Amino acid sequence: MFAYPLDQMVGGIFYEHSHRMIATFVGFLTVILALWLWRREDRLWVRVLGFTALGAVIIQGILGGLAVRFLLPTPISVSHATLAQTFFSLVVALALFTSSWWRSDQLHLRNDTPSPKLFTLALLTTGTVFIQLILGALMRHTQSGLAVPDFPLAYGQVFPSLNSDVMAEYNRLLINNDIRIAADGEITSKQIIIHMVHRIWAVVVSAMIIWTSIRLFKLSSLTKHVSRFAYVLLGVLALQISLGALTVLSVKAVDITTAHVATGALLLATCVTMTLHVAKVFGIRFQPAYSLSTKEATA
Q1: Of 235, 257, 273, 291, which alpha carbon lies 20 to 30 A from 4's?
Q2: Statement to judge: residues 151 and 271 lie in one domain
Q3: Whole-model pTM above 0.85?
Q4: Does 293 lie in the same domain as 175?
Q5: Residue 219 lies in a domain
């Protein structure tokens, strides 16, 4: 793989092989990270998490190879995309767990917590974003991204009709507007449903993020460290919604579609980081990796 001639990396080969090379570099870095944590980290659970990330990136490589060998079957391709988001979240978490803030604040958790339910809300919000990214991967790998070519309505309706006569009209519309060609085959009701579920779940994600952000705003008098995530979450959400709409309206322009996928990963990483901050400050009581005497603790 590393000896592939550079002058032959043209067209789609450039993107495919560059993806493989970067993935290999990521795997190499993850090996270093896991070994470094095992040697220098004093918390066993962090060391284990480092090797969990290593295991995830190895499985990710295997899934990538299987996706190519079996010509991109949907279950493997969606699993590959989902594990990528999981691995990214793991590394983001490790970056936070090894930060000076996380370690230095370990013995100073707040007792004036507004409600332990905030952690549950943050966790649920992160879960809804993760599900949305899975639905997005399913939409991409079932070629359902342009099964509905208009926005915010769907074929001029809130939810498009799916009977056979109307489906035939949809397919004629897509071909006449140069959105699809006959060689692509006809879109199916299943593709439209997958597309619409992704849109509907985006409403759920938006509601959860707005709800969480309102709760975080209320913490500004207690801790700016956590409340500032409200601004970040709302900003990234607004960007993601805009990119999602533009993805459809631009007929999946490569740069806009790529930015939409990348911003989805950024939104997930922000939710993961926010949830861990809430857990640290208001939720889970993390135990120190070592015990201190009363005198040392007081000092």
Answers
A1: 257
A2: yes
A3: yes
A4: yes
A5: yes
Closest by CA to 50, choosing from 83, 82, 86, 91, is 91
Question: Cβ(144)–Cβ(247) under 8 Å?
Answer: no
* Residue type at position 228: R
- What per-residue confidence (pLDDT) applies to 281? 83
Find residue 154's DSSP bridge partners: 157
Residues in Cβ contact with 197 at an 8 Å cutoff, skipping those fewer than 6 apart: 135
**CA atoms of 211 and 119, how far apart (whole Å):** 13
10 vs 1: CA distance, rounded Å: 15
9: left (phi over 0), alpha (psi -120 to 50) or beta: beta
Q: Residue 246 CA to chain centroid, in angstroms?
A: 19
Instruction: Give the residue carrying structure tokens 């799916």.
Output: 162
SS (HEC) of 185-245? CCCCHHHHHHHHHHHHHHHHHHHHHHHHHHHHHCCCCCCHHHHCHHHHHHHHHHHHHHHHH
pLDDT single digits (tens) 234-259: 999 999 999 999 999 999 999 999 99
In a domain, 103, yes or no: no
Intervals of the chain under pLDDT 50? 107-109, 286-299
Looking at the structure, do residues 131 and 42 belong to the same domain, yes or no? no
Closest CA to 96 of 244, 242, 270, 237: 270
Closest CA to 265 of 137, 94, 76, 167: 137
Number of domains in the chain: 2
For 80-93, write each residue's pLDDT tens digit: 999 999 999 999 99
Mark whether 74 and 117 lie in a shared domain.
no
Range(s) of the domain holding residue 268: 111-299
Residue 264 CB contacts under 8 Å (≥ 6 apart), including other chains: 129, 132, 133, 136, 240
In the three-class reduction of DSSP (H, G, I as helix; E, B as strand; rest coil), residue 131 is classed as helix
What pLDDT is stored for residue 1 in this prediction? 80
